[in-house]
Fold:
Amino acid sequence: MDKVTISDAVKYIGVDDTDLDLFEGQYIIPNGVSYNSYVILDEKTAVMDTVDARKSKEWFENLKAALDGRTVDYLVISHLEPDHASNVKALADAYPDAKLVLSVKAKAMLPQFFDIENLEERAIAVKEGDTLELGAHKLTFVMAPMVHWPEVMVEYESTEKILFSADGFGKFGALSADEDWTCEARRYYFNIVGKYGAPVQTLLKKAAGLDIQTICPLHGPILKENLEYYIDKYNTWSSYEPEDEGVLVASASIHGNTRKAAEKMAEILKEKGAAKVAFTDLTRDDMAEAVEDAFRYSKLVLCAASYDGGVFPPMEDFLNRLAHKSYQKRKVAMIENGSWAPTAKRAMTGMLEGMKNLSICENNVTIMSVMKDKDIAAMETLADELLSE
Ligand SMILES: Cc1cc2nc3c(=O)[nH]c(=O)nc-3n(C[C@H](O)[C@H](O)[C@H](O)COP(=O)(O)O)c2cc1C
Structure:
């Protein structure tokens, strides 16, 4: 915590969590995650969100140290997800004079999580553009519904030009981890916020009207420099445009023959000059990273075994996840494998049909059990079609 510095008046009081097995019950986090929280010390004090219940003790210690004997005047609640709001009641109880500042929707949702006495008197429900004076510092509230919960708001502090961006611009990885921002921010974005591109675009348009010098998200590092880079990434991601020209080859193989064909396809694509070819084994690799790469690149090759009159479940799972996250605007090729009545292509096509603006190749390939020379020739044709504009 000591190394995270924002300013004399704005203190970081968040915590790292380095031994959580799965974030949101499904995402591996090899380098942990941080639950960020901040306190603004002015004539009035404002705590900006709390943290996950796993780290309550450490967070309260950080809070007390930062307050240095002062009390909490306001707790600003950007949204109610438990990884940030778990300590709302604990703080409300520990500081009975603190007011809870939250969106109108958050106020309505709060009793689902906590029974807070005198909520009517304690809550300040804010709307778009409302402000809160703390002294020299002033918060302006900007509603961000469905980024990625309905009650979300972000806060802009105009004296120091800080955007408290809720889960926006967050990433996996504890603050103690020394790692690249983009990879883990992209994996976080597409798997957690991905479905809500349009609300993110709306928020970005509002943010464009603010003079922002620092972004304080609820996960990951505080962003102080080169903010255009991060905002530009969010613009690309939330508009569902490919970030990089390239192909993700995704393989779902039972006994290994489909995987061999997938690897051959990756080789062919490289030989034919694909800008970048990424590969994922959907039976073993991180599914969240596969989703991330599907959005990152402009093209996708689905290689799957037939299974019980449908498609091998790891591929079904992958496509289901892509559908959840509004996968769109990409070119897709398919290679299916089967031993008696191949059905993978039909099943995959059915799942792709519900997605917007996909261009599906015509020369998709069917392999019967083991890849033959004629299959390789067919894959060459498919690669040409996929790489053509
Ligand atoms: C449980 C199970 C169900 C299968 N269902 C089908 C099927 O419906 N149609 C078909 O043609 N092949 C089916 N197969 C066969 C595989 O799709 C086929 O052997 C394929 O070549 C396997 O490729 P792989 O070596 O990549 O696993 C099934 C195999 C298993 C194990």
The longest strand covers residues 297-307. The pocket of flavin mononucleotide is lined by residues 253-259, 305-309, 337-343, 369 (CB under 6 Å). Residues 332 and 360 are 5 Å apart (CA to CA).
